[in-house]
Every structure is written in C-alpha cells, then in structure tokens.
Amino acid sequence: MRADGFVLSEPSSLRRRSLLAVNHESQRALAKIKADIASLHWYRKASIAAMREALETARFIQLIGEPGSGKSALLKEFAEENARVGTIFVLKDARIQPKG
C-alpha cells in the first residue's frame, strides 16, 4: 500500500503469522470435503492436468457439474497438490462469517 510517497507493509513476522492462519483455515476447509465414496478414491489426473493448463492462461477457472459429480473432491485434490509448494487459500461458503 502507498501513502504519501511511503510504501507501507506489515512486518514479516505478521505476514508469516497471517500466511500460517490462512493455510490452517484452508486445511480445515479441505478436511471437510469428502473425496471418496465407500472408501474408494478416484484419481483425476486428466482433470487436474486440464485445470493446470487452464490456469496457464487464466487467473480464474470455474468447475461446473451436477451435484455429487466430484467438483469439490477435484478441488481438494488440486489444492492439496499445490499446498506442497506454497500457501493455498480456500474459501468455502459455510466458513465465511458475515463481517468477519
């Protein structure tokens, strides 16, 4: 942020704490997503590859499909893969508090 010619930013210790909090809440949101059916898990390599390819040219992609078709499970798999290399930020509608 810039104010009167000065660049303002939070101290790195606060930034690190903020990233840890975002990561923790994102992991909690992902943990609530069921990714198997009767203990069976489908790996969606082609869908993950399509998501990666789409994100090379776009900053936003939308997963669409019928309820129960696996959109959330796909998002979870994609997010967990990316969490290995950096902080992820997962928003889930039921976890967002008004004015929070």
Polypeptide structure, described:
This protein has one domain (about 10-95). The chain is built from three helices and two strands. The protein has helices at about 10-30, 45-55, 70-85; strands spanning about 1-5, 5. Strands 1-2 form a two-stranded antiparallel ribbon. Strand 1 (about 1-5) and strand 2 form a beta hairpin. The protein is globular and about 55 Å long. The chain starts with a strand and ends in a 17-residue tail after the last helix. The mean pLDDT is about 80.
Give the overall shape: globular
Our measurement of the CA-to-CA distance between the termini, rounded to an integer number of angstroms, reads 22 Å
Mean pLDDT: 82
Let me know the largest β-sheet: 2 strands, antiparallel
The helix-strand sequence is EEHHH
Strand content: under 5%
The helix-and-strand class reads mainly alpha
Q: Rg from C-alpha positions?
A: 17 Å
State the share of residues found in helices, binned by percent. 40-55%
> How many distinct beta strands?
2
Total number of domains: 1
- The residue ranges in which pLDDT falls below 50 over 5 or more consecutive positions are none
Characterize the quaternary organization of these chains: single chain
Which strand order spans the largest sheet, edge to edge or round the barrel? 1-2
What's the total helix number? 3
